[in-house]
């Protein structure tokens, strides 16, 4: 029998529907999600990882999740309650949970915390992310071969380096094929807002974009592209069911192996703080089936993914200039992780504001 608790955030109160068991689990593992588990994107994929923990460890582990937790005071309260209620391992799965995670970790030094996409660590706080920009390189390659208007639309969530890095990686790959391509960016200032995502997609398409990318969590933009007869990409999970004629591929976040590994480390006493940042080679970033494209484009996409996985190609290899014409990466040089983790500038070919 699998132990599972679901905590719902209603105002500032949480309720638990945990069943009572005669024997306690060896470990309680908690998850905090910024969106609903039914977003079919970011939070959905993290929850698939949670379910992988259940499948792997069965009765040894009880899992808990709290969904749709805003980044701010609510996150701090949720994380504190999880720590205070006996959870020995807590995954906080959005960038804006970083400081609340560090604050609560100081209060509960015997609890292990894992923060997704952050950069601050502590003896009991580890960080982890995936090299999503590798997948952006692949979809940029596809877009460069598929666009007819030379306009790519990009729906961006919030202006953090992870999102900027993805916009740049896709643009560089597309312009390597066709230097006339422009990436038009609209910020929705939210990770999950289907209405704003759909409106942004419609605005980009009305401005001539015939390929839509997104770094937001719902399939709304993809559905808008499907309805308009425009091509697009899924985000975080395979969204082909929502746009069978529009989706070219999707960048899938495969968290399950990491979640199982880190849970096992707590159970066997080997857990240590650190940072994990894996990509296509490790299977943490996966490409969905390539659809709605000619065979030669599919072959180019497969080669792009294979080259990144093998190390033959790095998406940020110079020469690279920013859109003001300043050289950021010299010819033959490769951006190091520090540069990518702090990326706050757009490459040539990106149009749209970059909020600070």
Verbal overview:
- This protein is α/β, with parallel strands linked by helices and 356 residues long.
- The chain has two domains: 3-130, Response regulator (Rossmann fold); 132-252 and 287-351, Rossmann fold, CATH 3.40.50.
- The chain is built from ten helices and 17 strands.
- Helix 4 packs antiparallel against helix 9 and helix 6 (194-206) runs parallel beside helix 7 (220-228).
- The longest helix is centred in the middle third of the chain and has 17 residues, at 161-177.
- It is globular and about 60 Å long.
- 49% of the residues are buried.
Text of the CATH class of the largest domain = Alpha Beta
Strand % is: 15-25%
Radius of gyration: 20 Å
Element-by-element helix/strand order = EEEHEHEHEEHEHEHEHEEHEEHEEHE
Sheet with most strands: strand arrangement: 2-1-4-3-5-6-7-13
Reported CATH architecture of the largest domain:
3-Layer(aba) Sandwich
What can be said about this structure in brief?
With 356 residues, the chain is α/β, with parallel strands linked by helices.
List keywords for this structure.
eight-stranded mixed beta sheet; Rossmann fold; alpha/beta; 356 residues; globular; 2 domains; seven-stranded mixed beta sheet
Please specify the SSE layout and strand pairing.
Elements lengths: L2 E8 L2 E4 L10 E6 L9 H16 L3 E6 L6 H12 L4 E4 L5 H10 L4 E5 L8 E6 L1 H15 L4 E6 L4 H17 L4 E6 L6 H13 L4 E4 L5 H9 L2 E6 L10 E7 L2 H13 L6 E4 L6 E3 L7 H16 L9 E2 L5 E3 L7 H5 L8 E2 L5
Helix pairs in contact: 1-8, 2-3, 4-5, 4-9, 6-7
